[in-house]
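Subject: Protein record for review, amino acid sequence with backbone structure tokens
Why sent: The fold of this protein is of interest and is recorded here as tokens.
Notation: Tokens come from a learned vocabulary of local backbone shapes, not from coordinates.
Attached in line: The record itself begins immediately under this heading.
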Amino acid sequence: MRIALVIQQPQARGQELFACTLGNFLLDQDHEVILISLFQGDFPLSFKGKHVSLNWEVKQKWIGISRFKSLSTELRKFNPDIVQANGGDTLKYSVLSAMIFPFSGKVIFNNGGVVSYYFRSGLQKFFYRFLLNRLQGLISISSYSAQDLNGLLDASIPKCQIPIGLNTNFQFALKEAAPNPVFVHIGGFTPEKNHRFLIALWENYQSIIPESMLVLIGGGPQKSEIEQLIDSKSLSNIHLLGSQVNPWAFVPKNAILLLPSKIEGMPSVIAESILSGIPVIAHRVGGIAEMVEALPACFLPEFENIENWSQAMNYWVSMAEEEKSNLLASSREMVVAKFDMQVVGEQFQKFHKSL
């Protein structure tokens, strides 16, 4: 099959990184695959096939007719069987381009998040319903994400549910263990990642274990704001490392992942953390609960409850190494069984072929 994967831009975000991993798998299965990024970005994506960058300016928010034409032109050149939109504005541009400048191939959407979280008006909801019902297929990353769109999607549109996938054989090279407790957050500085709660939690936790360290890896629109918040509170032992091609190379072996998001589809960083031997503390939001079901190395404290979170952090810090290793080992087996790219990729292949 000829498959075009459309992404927002080259960036260290789950949808883009997953699209590259899926694309590489499909290439290995002898499909013809191209990656098309809409907006400008300088993050080096690990896609081994052809990457077409339309290089649109991020700051220009208006929808110009030239954009639809440029996307359609690239798709006509490739003549795809499947055009898979992957998050961000890709649904909007893929569907409207197909309507204004028709191209071959069925347009489907990989729904990796919780769309309704971003609705700010009834008009937005109406527009999204319009786009969804011009698809030829929908893939949702979790049952939570699927249910989020149930009221918007025509029942006749083919749909399925496929979780995240990653290369579970990849060896994550971590830093040597630090002498004191280390907590890490990997994710963009956006409102939904909830860095403000993370800083409030850290302000409290440092009064318990002053020598502990917090590592923040990622970039994004709220990075400067969070830096100013940290400075205003005179908090210490916080290290902001920016976006990294291989974030795990900056994570000590004794770290604990903190993920206090307000909403999530099914974050691959949790699976990567377990594969790396790093326990997880996260909010029970979106698709996280079904993702970590029965994973003993992932704790889900009460939403934005600083006391509960601090207790969970202390629990991992004080746990005997043998017990921690056993919990992580059993969790790793479950992650490999459910999220290995070979398993997940075959599900995508099956759905693509069914259309």
Notes: The chain is about 40% helix and 20% strand.
